Amino acid sequence: MKLLVLILFFMISFKTYADSTCIGKVKELAIGRAGTVLIAGPGGLPSTYLCNVKLKHINVEPEACKAMYGQLLSAQAQELTVKITFNPAISSCSEVKSWGWATHFNWIIVNK
Asked: Could you read off the pLDDT tens digit of each residue along the chain, which spans 112 residues?
């Protein structure tokens, strides 16, 4: 019985801290003159700002933003699947604020 309770506790705890994942192809990728990176597509993600290549914003360093933009640009050109994770979890990829900042995004993963 104790083992069952312990297993359930870890399952609930893991789910609480698990990332939400938006998966799909990049339908839109842009960079503005101020350095803001915009993406749309994976998992129904609307046009949303990820980061800025010139300034630290939403806790993302410019160097990391440049690397992510390069990764996304390559994925779009090769029509590869992209995973964008959010932590804490979001309720739905399509509910991320359109033309707003994608706060709490965590990882950008490109799959073959």
From this structure: 655 444 444 444 444 557 899 999 999 999 999 999 999 999 999 999 999 999 999 999 999 999 999 999 999 999 999 999 999 999 999 999 999 999 889 999 999 8
DSSP string computed for the chain: -HHHHHHHHHHHHHHHHPPEEEEEE--EEEE-TT-EEEEE-GGG--SEEEEESSS-BTTB-HHHHHHHHHHHHHHHHTT-EEEEEESS--S-GGGSPTTSB-TTEEEEEEE-
